[in-house]
Specification:
Number of domains: 1
CATH architecture: Roll
Strand content: 5-15%
Strand order of the largest sheet: 1-2
Structural class: alpha+beta
Distance between the termini: 18 Å
CATH class: Mainly Beta
Order of helices and strands: EEHH
Bound molecules: zinc ion
Number of helices: 2
Radius of gyration: 11 Å
CATH topology: Ribosomal Protein L24e, Chain: T
Length: 56
């Protein structure tokens, strides 16, 4: 399972699953990712720390 925002692998039992109004599931590894996507409506490709994390 991967984080819907930063694409990191999420260990089963950690992280958070969010159900959108249209029924789609979003998985988050942390509150940080949830907040960035849902509240700040940031795009992973345009977010510096996600790009950095993905390239590691
Ligand atoms: Zn994440």
């Amino acid at each position: 399972m991967k984080c819907s925002f930063c694409d990191q692998n999420i260990t089963i039992g950690t992280g958070k699953t969010y159900v959108k109004k249209d029924g789609k599931l979003l998985h988050f590894c942390s509150m940080k990712c949830e907040k960035n996507l849902l509240k700040l409506k940031r795009k992973p490709r345009e977010t510096a720390w996600v790009r950095k994390r993905r390239s590691e």
